Backbone:
């Protein structure tokens, strides 16, 4: 028994050692960086483009093979398929060399004639790093746990400014301000509205950049013209008010659902609550993001949202959504329902989303073609507005892991995201907007030859990102996830008739402010508090802003022009919504 | 020859005394050898156990101690895991626990967890029922078997005929009937083994797969449950709309009356326990509290306060003499008021009769120990409470039925409905519990009930129910006790995967399905407050420990008695 036991132990130890030995990182001569990203077939092409870009930009290492044996021993250590492919693709003699190496590894004797054709010593250029994709760690919790344990991917994709701030708080992302300037992927290389999503301002007001976009999403309604025609409705206009949206929406659902036992066709799949609140002139936080400020605009937005969902039935409820049996493909059931021609299976006239859904619509287009159907006939419509027309902007951005072993190489990947090669790939692929807005001016973006049915779509998305879009409102004094949870909870209660709109807004405000107080209490436990000094400065500033707002509102009521001395200095405003809103009202210096 | 020589050589003479070794004491060499052997055996044993011990230490014991320490510190990912500057860890004592107690969400989520646990008595009863059915040998040539075979064949034939006739709209009904028929036929062929396997299927099916399946079943429009239920509800609405309202209200009052009967029965039983010295003052108090909770819920759910005000206003009109006949007639035709009067009268009569009987009872024993029998009292009261809640809920359904039916009854939105999300998950849990380990435990326990006891009961002329109540159920008490203890522990800790997979947003709608285990996850991994999250986890542990200790202390006695 004991020999069996010892035998198993030895076997396991041997297997463990073999596993460690066979790890690519342990055996490669070329450093590997891991890119934690979502599951998308386009990633493989992007990895290939990155390697190519490295070679073109001179971020390379030279490897000289003295002879064939030297080459085979190098490739015995470096079994990476990507590196072998690079040698095949980019070196003049690479293909011949790799064929012989592969034959040798397969136990065959290399053809002496072919071997003689190779010139040794042979020098090949290899990228300074090999990029590998890790799609299994894209979950936020995994990133946090791996990150604090010191084993996360070198480059990590993540959402907008909310998570960037959280990762900053736990010290997982690297300040890339300096390399961004040096390598050309600074904030000036992307959309101005993304500032809050990519950088954080310090106490002195300096911006620190922590990430760069992989793609950018300004949200609009995709409109399926065919669905509007099917139900005899006129197409949405370039601009519309809340009233007009409701009027058209009510008529649309009335006609489209005629004869159906229950509503199956909806005017739109959804709309961003924050966009609705902003159009009524409100935001979750006040101007300095020191407190929640859920007053009349929030109440109004809640009531409107409820009306659209439960009274007018313009957008589906969660149970309507759960009722649809379609649930597959990129973009989920919404993308499928947008393309449906049979109203009894469920249909959306418009879909609130970003340009990235073209990936799915192109797939659907191919399927439609196979079934003899015309391609999707698409255009866009902006969100309806009341006081302030706006839309939301977001990004899937890449950050550099602060404990990564190859930070210097990882920043090169961020530089690659600003490159022509990468931007053009996004343009071609339809995966949202390219990080650099300059590429949205190109003909390949505006009129992709293969997809004429999309020609009315591309420009509005690019324009929305530069004109309508306003970045997220974040407070350094509360975790965005906590604020989201509180607000979602009370909105849910309101939507389920467990609380009135006023009560829900008041309770959300109270709970968010309690959470802010708690966060400040926790900060006092630090040796050197970070948040409290900032909070004190900003609350003093907020008081001044409140006083100035009173005067500004008086001017507005009286219909007077605002004197320059009564205007609020723009740099006082931390919340990008108020900056944009007050600027539109002429309240900012 | 050699034997003789050895014997001669060992013979003792005065000149040559022989020192005989003391075989009762080990020689120094032997003792050292034995020690070596012992040490070797010990090392070998430890060597075998080492992987397990190391695994336990690494993955259980050390994290456990670590999390306990964390619960008393301000450990936060942002403060203490920041590689760029870690703040010193601060001992916060009981601060997290104080904050927890003052946090509304904690109590709400604890309430959700306890609500889910209310399904436990039903699950246990169903498991026992299944075990009793499955403990019978279904093979053989009895008449019942032939009937099952016939029913199965008829069902299958009907399904085939309906499908051939193009009855696609009732596809789910066809499927269910087909499966039922198939099960009957296969069951007759394979006996109870087939049924045991079928009943145990939920337990060995992958958890997430089952949850996803149930999510599909709960589809509010096209889900099989909705599709099967909606035609029934259509019939019910037609029937309810066609009958006089007092019939439905009669059922409502029947439910209320049953609630009162369970309450009175409970009070009577507690009084008997008290009089017979089986229950101390504390037990009486706690049991009464549990019994009264459903009444509070009834007042809330039935809107009795509002109705009470309405009655008070009309009474005032009556007293003032404003249209007294009209008011009286309105009362008479209001089924709520009439029912309430009848019920109150009946209740008063029952209480009076009970009181008269009580005064005649022989009180020979006075309980001096207040905590005596508290487990018995609470367990009894808890079961009665769950039954009362079920009846109150049922009454609520019938109370509102005429109004709902007038608009047309429709199936609930299941997981998307704030009122139905929890019951929907409980129904799923109930299904899973029937064919769980509980059923297996009962199956095993049923085989251990001595046959002589049943024979004795037969000789005494006991009915089936009497045999169950007086023989089977007491004999199963240790198993039931074990199941309850494990169920309570599992119930308090559970709910995470169910909530995460089935509800959207997870824990919703409006936090109605968030359990304590999910709360621990969100606090720990969404906000990064590991200290606070650990405090919630340890509070949950304390809760489990207290309930378990309570069960052991008081429940064990109940079992052994």
Residues:
């Amino acid at each position: 028994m004991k020999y069996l036991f010892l035998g198993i132990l030895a076997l396991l130890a041997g297997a463990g050692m073999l596993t460690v030995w066979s790890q690519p990182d342990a055996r490669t001569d070329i450093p590997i960086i891991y890119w934690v990203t979502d599951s998308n077939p386009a990633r493989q092409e992007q990895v290939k483009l990155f390697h190519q870009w490295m070679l073109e930009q001179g971020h390379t290492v030279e490897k000289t093979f003295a002879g064939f044996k030297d080459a085979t021993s190098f490739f015995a250590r470096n079994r990476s398929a990507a590196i072998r492919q690079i040698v095949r693709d980019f070196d003049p003699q690479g293909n011949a060399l790799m064929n012989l190496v592969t034959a040798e590894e397969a136990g065959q004797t290399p053809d002496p004639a072919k071997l003689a054709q190779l010139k040794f010593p042979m020098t090949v250029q290899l990228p300074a790093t090999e990029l590998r994709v890790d799609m299994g760690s894209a979950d936020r919790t995994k990133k946090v746990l791996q990150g604090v344990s010191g084993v996360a991917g070198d480059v990590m994709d993540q959402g907008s400014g909310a998570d960037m701030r959280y990762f900053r708080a736990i010290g997982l992302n690297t300040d890339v301000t300096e390399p961004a300037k040096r390598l050309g992927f600074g904030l000036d290389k992307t959309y101005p509205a993304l500032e809050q999503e990519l950088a954080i301002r310090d106490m002195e007001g300096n911006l620190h950049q922590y990430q760069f976009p992989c793609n950018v999403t300004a949200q609009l309604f995709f409109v399926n013209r065919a669905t509007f025609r099917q139900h005899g409705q006129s197409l949405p206009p370039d601009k519309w008010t809340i009233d007009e949206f409701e009027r058209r929406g009510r008529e649309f659902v009335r006609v489209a659902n005629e004869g159906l036992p229950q509503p199956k066709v909806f005017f739109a799949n959804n709309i961003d609550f924050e966009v609705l609140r902003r159009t009524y002139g409100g935001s979750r936080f006040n101007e300095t993001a020191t407190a929640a400020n859920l007053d009349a605009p929030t109440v109004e937005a809640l009531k409107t949202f409820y009306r659209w969902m439960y009274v007018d039935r313009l957008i589906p409820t969660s149970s309507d959504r759960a009722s649809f049996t379609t649930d597959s493909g990129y973009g989920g059931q919404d993308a499928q329902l947008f393309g449906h021609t049979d109203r009894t299976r469920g249909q959306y006239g418009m879909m609130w989303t970003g340009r990235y859904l073209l990936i799915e619509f192109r797939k659907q287009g191919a399927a439609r073609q196979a079934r003899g159907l015309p391609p999707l006939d698409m255009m866009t419509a902006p969100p309806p507005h009341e006081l302030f027309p706006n839309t939301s902007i977001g990004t899937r951005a890449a950050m550099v892991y602060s404990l990564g072993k190859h930070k210097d190489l990882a920043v090169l990947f961020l530089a690659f995201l600003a490159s022509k090669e990468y931007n053009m790939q996004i343009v071609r692929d339809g995966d949202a907007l390219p990080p650099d807005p300059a590429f949205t001016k190109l003909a390949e973006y505006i009129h992709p030859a293969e997809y004429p049915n999309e020609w009315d779509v591309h420009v509005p998305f690019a324009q929305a990102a530069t004109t309508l879009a306003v970045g997220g409102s974040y407070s350094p004094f509360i975790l965005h996830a906590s604020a989201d949870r509180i607000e979602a909870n009370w909105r849910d209660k309101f939507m389920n008739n467990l609380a009135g709109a006023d009560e829900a807004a008041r309770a959300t405000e109270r709970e968010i402010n309690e959470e802010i107080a708690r966060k400040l209490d926790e900060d006092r436990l630090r040796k050197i508090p970070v948040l409290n000094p900032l909070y004190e400065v900003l609350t003093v500033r907020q008081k001044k802003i409140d006083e100035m707002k009173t005067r500004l509102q008086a001017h507005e009521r009286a219909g007077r022009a605002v004197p320059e001395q009564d205007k609020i200095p723009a740099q006082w405003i931390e919340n990008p919504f108020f900056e944009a809103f007050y600027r539109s009202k002429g309240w900012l210096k | 020859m050699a034997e003789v020589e050895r014997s001669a050589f060992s013979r003792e003479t005065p000149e040559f005394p022989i020192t005989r070794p003391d075989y009762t004491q080990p020689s120094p060499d032997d003792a050292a050898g034995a020690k070596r052997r012992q040490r070797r055996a010990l090392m070998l044993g430890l060597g075998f156990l080492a992987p397990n011990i190391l695994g336990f230490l690494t993955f259980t014991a050390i994290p456990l101690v670590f999390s306990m320490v964390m619960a008393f510190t301000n450990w936060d990912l942002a403060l203490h895991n920041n590689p760029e500057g870690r703040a010193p860890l601060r001992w916060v004592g009981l601060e997290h626990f104080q904050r927890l107690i003052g946090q509304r969400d904690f109590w709400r989520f604890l309430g959700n967890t306890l609500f889910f646990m209310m399904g436990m008595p039903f699950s246990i009863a169903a498991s026992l029922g299944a075990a009793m059915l499955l403990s019978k040998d279904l093979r053989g040539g009895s008449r019942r078997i032939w009937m099952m075979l016939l029913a199965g064949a008829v069902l299958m034939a009907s399904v085939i005929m309906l499908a051939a006739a193009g009855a696609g709209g009732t596809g789910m009904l066809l499927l269910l009937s087909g499966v039922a028929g198939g099960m009957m036929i296969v069951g007759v062929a394979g006996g109870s083994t087939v049924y045991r396997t079928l009943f145990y299927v939920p337990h060995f099916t992958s958890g997430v797969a089952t949850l996803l399946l149930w999510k599909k079943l709960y589809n509010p429009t096209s889900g099989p449950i909705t599709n099967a239920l909606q035609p029934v509800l259509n019939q019910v609405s037609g029937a309810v709309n066609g009958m006089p309202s007092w019939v439905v209200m009669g059922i409502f009052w029947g439910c209320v009356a049953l609630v009162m009967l369970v309450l009175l029965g409970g009070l009577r039983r507690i009084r008997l326990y008290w009089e017979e010295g089986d229950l101390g003052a504390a037990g009486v108090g706690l049991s009464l509290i549990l019994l009264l909770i459903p009444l509070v819920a009834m007042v809330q759910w039935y809107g009795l306060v509002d109705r009470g005000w309405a009655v008070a206003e009309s009474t005032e009109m009556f007293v003032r003499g404003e249209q007294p006949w009209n008011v009286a007639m309105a009362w008479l035709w209001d089924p709520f008021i009439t029912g309430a009067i009848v019920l109150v009268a009946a209740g008063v009569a029952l209480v009076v009769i009970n009181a008269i009987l009580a005064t005649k009872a022989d009180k020979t024993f006075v309980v001096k120990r207040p905590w005596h029998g508290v487990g018995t009292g609470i367990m009894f009261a808890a079961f009665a409470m769950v039954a009362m809640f079920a009846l109150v809920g049922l009454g609520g359904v019938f109370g509102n039925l005429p109004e709902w039916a007038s608009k047309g009854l429709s199936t609930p939105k299941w997981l998307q409905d704030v009122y139905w999300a929890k019951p929907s998950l409980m129904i799923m849990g109930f299904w899973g519990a029937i064919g769980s380990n509980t059923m297996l435990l009962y199956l095993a326990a049923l085989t251990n009930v001595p046959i002589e006891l049943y024979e004795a009961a037969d000789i005494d002329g006991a009915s089936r129910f009497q045999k169950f109540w007086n023989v089977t159920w007491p004999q199963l008490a240790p198993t039931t006790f074990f199941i309850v203890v494990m169920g309570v522990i599992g119930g308090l800790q559970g709910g995470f995967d169910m909530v995460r997979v089935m509800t959207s947003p997870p824990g919703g709608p409006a936090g109605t399905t968030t359990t304590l285990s999910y709360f621990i996850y969100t606090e720990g991994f969404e906000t990064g407050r590991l200290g606070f999250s650990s405090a919630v986890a340890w509070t949950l542990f304390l809760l489990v420990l207290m309930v378990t200790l309570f069960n052991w202390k008081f429940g064990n006695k109940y079992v052994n008695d």
Q: What stands out?
A: Chain A has a mean pLDDT of 91. The interface with chain B takes residues 2, 5, 141, 144-145, 148, 150, 166, 169-172, 262, 317-319, 322-325, 402-403, 479, 481-482, 485, 488-489, 492-493, 495-496, 498, 522, 525-527 of chain A (CB under 8 Å). The CA atoms of residues 19 and 40 of chain A lie 28 Å apart.
